[in-house]
From TrEMBL:
This is Cytochrome C. GO terms for molecular function: electron transfer activity; heme binding; metal ion binding. Keywords: Heme, Iron, Metal-binding. Residues 86-169 form the Cytochrome c domain. It holds the Pfam family Cytochrome_CBB3.
Length: 177
């Protein structure tokens, strides 16, 4: 009997303490960090840029600027490295993924996006005055409506596509003759 009266007394005391609290004040929290996260805006800070004068691992800096003069310099001076081995299968696969949508599989400027009217003014390769350097420069920086592929493709993959475009140009020229 004494135990029951003790328990009833403790329950009564607990209820009395709960009833006396101020309802306008917030409850105390044991670990507030777990209940409320710090608010932040996702795009409030710009993405991190690499430090100046650093080079991405496995690549060399591209010496030609994104100007008309840089394009002409690349066209005249830039050539593929002699140690580059041309892999026709890989070059064709890369061309089909990145270029054929607009330029067409044969390089005739009649890709799927052109046929559906999504992209206009895509040049064909035949009859164009370009070199390895000019193609590489356009792949690196983009030109007109063509986007830049410097971030999507490695240096070796860009050269593979350059070789594939030159091959398609030669095929177009032989068809025209």
């Amino acid at each position: 009997m004494k135990c029951i009266t003790k328990y009833i007394g403790l329950v009564f005391l607990g209820l009395l303490l709960l009833a006396c609290r101020d309802k306008q004040k917030p409850n105390s929290e044991f670990a507030p960090d777990m209940y409320e996260s710090a608010a932040y805006k996702t795009y409030a800070t710009p993405p991190l840029t690499p430090p100046e004068h650093t080079v991405k691992r496995g690549s060399l800096p591209y010496p030609y600027p994104n100007t008309l003069e840089g394009y002409e310099q690349a066209k005249a001076n830039l050539r593929a490295d002699a140690s580059l081995t041309v892999d026709a299968v890989r070059g064709r696969a890369l061309y089909n993924v990145y270029c054929a949508l607009c330029h067409g599989e044969q390089g005739d400027g009649k890709g799927v996006l052109v046929q559906r009217g999504k992209v206009f003014g895509v040049p064909q390769f035949a009859g164009r005055d370009f070199t390895e350097g000019s193609i590489y420069h356009v792949l690196y920086y983009g030109r007109n409506a063509m986007p830049a592929f410097a971030t999507q493709l490695t240096e070796e993959e860009r050269w593979q596509i350059v070789k594939q475009v030159l091959l398609k140009d030669e095929i177009q020229k032989t068809k025209d003759e």
